[in-house]
Recover the amino acids of this structure.
């Protein structure tokens, strides 16, 4: 049974960590950040969920989406690389610029590649953390069962 304070911390911090991950993703090619660090932050936020709710509950909620998320991320990264061929060479950066409310927004194939990297890191990171948590829960259950017997 997890403690109530850990569940409260999860409710407060998980959305904030995911918001910081989104901000790091969006500023990734102009300033430090990008898809890898954003994916690690999202995986860390979901690890907080694993710690507060348990691995089995988290696996039931997110588990069916993890491996397809990795496949989607790989597909997006390959598409970003192949779009560069249209622009002049493999992984050649192509950019679209537009104005939104007076602010210049530029999006391109490097951000698309970062999105693919982020999805792969989230899927693999959370899968690894879930497996690690399940192994730890199994060991603790075995220790509890052995401790009850005379």
């Amino acid at each position: 049974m997890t403690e109530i304070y850990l569940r409260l911390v999860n409710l407060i911090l998980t959305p904030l960590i995911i918001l910081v991950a989104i901000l790091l993703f969006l500023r990734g090619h102009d300033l430090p950040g990008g898809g890898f660090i954003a994916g690690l932050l999202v995986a860390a936020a979901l690890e907080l969920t694993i710690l507060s709710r348990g691995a089995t509950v988290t696996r039931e909620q997110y588990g069916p989406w993890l491996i397809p998320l990795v496949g989607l991320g790989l597909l997006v990264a390959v598409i970003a690389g192949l779009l560069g061929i249209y622009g002049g060479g493999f992984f050649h950066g192509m950019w679209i610029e537009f104005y939104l409310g007076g602010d210049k927004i530029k999006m391109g194939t490097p951000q698309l590649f970062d999105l693919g990297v982020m999805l792969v890191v989230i899927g693999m990171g959370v899968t690894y953390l879930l497996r690690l948590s399940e192994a730890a829960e199994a060991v603790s259950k075995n220790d509890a069962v052995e401790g009850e017997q005379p």
